[in-house]
Amino acid sequence: MHGSVKSIILAAGKGTRMKSELPKVLHKIFNKELLGYVLDEVNKTGEVSENYVIVGHKAELVQEYVKNNFQNARCLLQSPQLGTGHAAFQAYDYLKNFDGEVLILCGDTPLITADTLKDFISVHRQNNASLTVMSAIFDEPANYGRIIRDSNGEILAIVEEKDASPGQKAVKEVNTGVYLLNWKDVSPAFLSLDSNNAQGEYYLTDIVKWAITNKFKVQSYVLKNNEESFGINSKSHLAQAFKILKNRVINKLLDDGVTIVDPDTTYISPDTSIEADTQILPCTYIEGKNKIGKNCKIGPFARIRGDVELGDNVKIGNFVEIKKSKIKDNTNVSHLSYIGDSCLGSNVNIGAGTITANYNHATKQKFQTEIKDGASTGSNSVLVAPVVMGEKSSIGAGTVLTKNLNDNSLGLTRAPLKIFDNWFKK
Ligand code: UD1
Ligand code: CA
Predict the structure, then answer these.
(1) CA 194/CA 212 separation, integer angstroms
(2) Helices H, strands E: what count in the chain?
């Protein structure tokens, strides 16, 4: 987060094809916004000190999201939206005296990775380029800007599909929309952009031609895995990106020694870490940020909703939902339970159907439950938070616990059982 690079992230576009009230970049994959993926990966490079997010369509919503989640990002308004070149130009005044590199990318490409961005930046530096464009080779390059080269293979320009000749359209190397600029060298290009093209827009891609004309070194960096450039324009794209991301996460976890019985029906967010020899059983859904220890057994049919920390040897069984909770070693939550805003010690046993009642609907407040080491709950019990169960304490089946329980104590609420002998013979 303390590097010398600054980024400009283009996120002002309308995203018409999403057919949504929500701005495109605030759509989510695993409960995290598309823009959040891009900002997280950019920040993870360790190269970037500050991010300028260009907002336009429903700017207030994007602005609020960025403000609440990213300290090193600020939003700049682009209104009206006159093209990608005009979008990046919104940061021009803020970078007036900046003498470093500027990374430009789009807010709707959640599959880009920090590793690729790091490599991209280092290749730019090794080659002493003034401008590096990230390109990709596509068999069917439709809709992308084409990288046009001369007979020596030197880049001449990027030509948009709509402006391209049939010969240019045949080119398979395309612009992914990611650029690194030595700002002092290339930023004057923004003052010379015009909108004399098929779309009547100020094209960011025209900075390439300007840089070449002005004798600055321009090169491309060919993306190794095309998936990373995937931009989201529709709900169908969103679903495809989800699948790619989920498979990427699962393959990495398998490589790291996590047992995933059925990758097809297992969903794990990229912000979840899991230690080796933990088993994830089918139909398990894990979203948000989580930390899971070793030798745990999770699922089948378990849901972990984020901000969850599990120690080692923890068992989360079928139809169990866990949210914002910490669970220590050797604790079992085996069946049909909801654990939210809770802290469970080690060697705790949660009986089937135990619920932590953490929410007061009238006041809209959430409360904490604490269950200390060695405690247990009987089946179908409710813990009305805020409440604490002491060490080795227990509550019997069906108990509604509304008061704290001391260590080694038993809590029991039980309506008297009435038995009517021979009732059905009478
Ligand atoms: C752009 C590139 C194209 C490249 C492709 C990669 C240009 C002219 N073309 O085309 O070469 O192959 O990306 O996906 O740059 N945006 C704004 N303000 C605007 C216009 C766009 O912020 O006024 C943002 C959009 O929200 C989006 C990004 O810029 O995140 C790209 O815009 P888009 O219209 O999708 O560009 P393409 O036509 O796809
Ligand atoms: Ca696009």
Answers:
(1) 17
(2) 9, 37
Q: Across residues 178-190, what is the average pLDDT? A: 98
Whole-model pTM above 0.90?
A: yes
Is a pLDDT exceeding 60 seen at residue 1? no
Note the pLDDT of residue 3.
Answer: 77
- The pLDDT of 204-217, averaged and rounded, is 98
**Mean pLDDT estimate for the chain:** 97
DSSP character at residue 231: P
Nearest Cα residue to 343 out of 372, 303, 366: 372
Rounded to whole angstroms, the Cα distance separating 284 from 298 reads: 7
Confidence of residue 2 (pLDDT cuts 50, 70, 90): low
Please return the burial class of 409, using the count of CB atoms within 10 Å of its CB with bins 0-12, 13-18 and 19+. Answer: middle
Distance CA 205, CA 196 (A): 13
pLDDT of residue 111: 98
In three-state secondary structure terms, 46 is: coil
Q: For the residues 77-87, what does the mean pLDDT come to?
A: 97
Query: Which numbered atom of ligand 1 lies nearest the CA of 203?
Result: 8
Q: Distances in Å between the alpha carbon of 126 and those of 78, 122, 379?
A: 34, 6, 64
Task: Write down the residue that tokens 């469970």 correspond to.
Answer: 344
Quote the CA–CA distance of 400 and 396 in Å, as a whole number. 9
Residue 408 contacts residue 390 (beta carbons within 8 Å)? yes
Q: Is 97 exposed, middle or buried (0-12, 13-18, 19+ CB in 10 A)?
A: exposed
Assess contact for 255 and 237: CB atoms under 8 A. Answer: no
Mean pLDDT for 193-215 is 98
Binding-site residues, ligand 1, Cβ < 6 A = 10-13, 54, 56, 78, 81-84, 86-87, 106-108, 144-145, 158, 160, 174-177, 203-205, 231
Ligand 1 atom with least separation from CA of 109: 30
